[in-house]
Amino acid sequence: MTDMNTDNRHRTPRVITVVLNYNQHGMTREMLADFQEKGWGGSHVLLVDNDSSDGSAEKIRREFPGMEVLETGRNLGCSGGRNFGARAALERGAEFIFCVDNDTYVAEDCIACLVAHMERDLAIGILGARVMRHPETDLIWSLGTHVDWDRCDYKSIQEEPGEIPSDGLLDAAWVPGTAWMVRASVFEDVGFIDDRYFIYFEDTDFSFRIRQKGLRVAVAPDAVIWHRERSSMDAGSPRSAYYYTRNRLLFFTAYSPRPLFSRWFLSSRALLWSLRLMGKNEWRVAGAVIKGLRDAALGRWGERKI
After folding, report:
1. Where are the alpha helices (DSSP H) in 141-201?
2. Predicted local confidence at residue 159, as pLDDT
3. DSSP β-bridge partners for residue 243
4. Cα separation, 69 vs 104, whole angstroms
5. Which of 20, 113, 208, 266 registers the highest number of CB atoms within 10 A of its CB?
6. Model's pTM, two decimal places?
């Protein structure tokens, strides 16, 4: 494995890449093989296996000799899995931690671009990449996000900006967890990702907490990855509906300028959604939405049985 070389004249900061895998050996192998051809972006890579049952950890070890594969022992979700990787990266002396999803392809200069921006502006706490769609490689998946507090919703920026500021960065409401570079000191100043979320909105919350500490949250359009949009959780499943309902309430009531309105608005919308699902005989998904509402009201967070 190739680590970043140290130049005595201009010391290169130590970057550790964290890739999370859960029962997606084939996809993870494709991502790592492509990344390996690009020299791992000059970083050291940690593959965090989130207690997969498909033999991912052993297969990756055989296919990528020397790859550092860490096993969590149980499924910690996106939040806990990334925290597991971040703690391991910090123990190994990381100065920057690049978290990237396993359903992506990383441009050869992506990591170098992100680090260069963060070294120029020490106020940046977290910096995202330009996320393009794959295989439609000319379509933007995300250049950051906007939040609509009135509708308790968000929208990914999917168009080219009219003009990029002189520093080459776009400020964003938050950086999607698809790919982000975090300054190691952020974990000391801000803390780790909130494990209450498990999956969905954990990246949103993390960005907002970073901004609350006076640090900048932005996207670098010149740092590129391609996203295949293949989640480890079926978007139409009861588990997806549960975590989305519960965690959307957790996030918006925590950060909205009108938390009581947000709670009422989102609860009403979720109830209407569950009624529509019942009308389509999707009883299990409807029940998961209602359970998400109940658990949000009762403060039941983290991983839950659905």
Report:
1. 185-189
2. 87
3. none
4. 18
5. 20
6. 0.93
Tell me if 210 sits within 8 A of 190, measured CB to CB.
yes
**CA 292-155-291 angle, 5° bins:** 5
Alpha carbon 96 to chain centroid, angstroms: 15
**For 266-280, what is each residue's pLDDT tens digit?**
999 999 999 999 999
Q: Which residue has the higher pLDDT, 169 or 10?
A: 169
User: Tokens 């000059």 sit at which residue?
Assistant: 42
The amino acid at residue 74 is R
Cα(224)–Cα(117) distance, integer angstroms: 14
* H-run or E-run covering 81: helix 77-91
Residue 172 half-sphere exposure, CB side, CA atoms within 13 Å? 32
Calpha distance 81→253 (Å, rounded): 25
Number of neighbouring beta carbons within 10 Å of residue 198 = 23
pLDDT at position 70 is 98
Average pLDDT, the chain: 93
Instruction: Note whether 184 and 97 are within 8 A (CB).
Output: yes
Phi/psi for 155 (5° steps) reads -140, 130
Helix axes 238-255, 259-279, angle to 10 degrees: 160
Distance CA 219, CA 140 (A): 13
